[in-house]
Amino acid sequence: MFGTRFVQSRWEQNPKMEVAGESSNAAPPSETVVEEQSPGQNLAAMLESNIAIDRNDPVQMRILADYGAVFVTAAVPPPTAVFSGEDQVRLWQSSVDIARESIGGFSIELQAPAMTALLSARAEARAARLDITPRGGDAARRGYDDTVRLWTSRVDPALDHWVTRKRLSSDERARLRGLTPREQIPEVLELEKRGIYFSTGFDKSILYSVAAPGTSQHLSMLAIDVAQFENAEVRRILSRHGWYQTVVSDLPHFTYLGIAEEKLPALGLKKVTSGGRVFWIPDPAQL
Ligand SMILES: [Zn+2]
To answer: pTM of the predicted model, to two decimals?
Structure first.
């Protein structure tokens, strides 16, 4: 089923004409039906021209490698790899078109084209006796402070864990706790290089389960955590409407790209299949 969606050119706020799909000559279900007026920009070119990136900063490059797929979106990409704080997030969020909907009992907000595509996907799912709903009230738009809270919920217990295991001194723990979340990012990633991991199970990088403060795709209002993420048909429907998995191992998390799947490689994304799931992640050669 073809959807109708708004297309927003990057760096502009005025939605352009709608693109109506043609449904008379129905495509096989396996084909993607996402259509866009302005295809996303190649990742490398995008990062080169429009985004404030310091390529000498290993933290920013790591963030891009993990979350950078969002920059090719046909909606409005974030202006930076790492938002500096609540003020920058608020200012930027207020500059883009936002849509609010109540879905499955939760009120969520997304960029307008992302919401349009989500509602189309949901309609298709419901027609197939499935559903697509948010995992909770914070499943879509988040603020900077939300990302700090999630970050701290991982960092704090991990610091205690590694002090107990005598891999960190209590002085070092106190010093790390005294840093701002932004200052903690490089320190945590540096410790993880030595096997001192900050994920919930202390066995992998913290970035597998939470975004570093200021880096979440939820800040860009282009991500949603979906309750039915285990359902392969739901995932297929979402991808047909431009919603892809772009963060490996964050399984409920979907990103709005708004671009047909076959166009993604030319934009600098690489397909990775893991556990029966398809992820579209930045091709390292493009970063
Ligand atoms: Zn998420």
So the answer is: 0.81
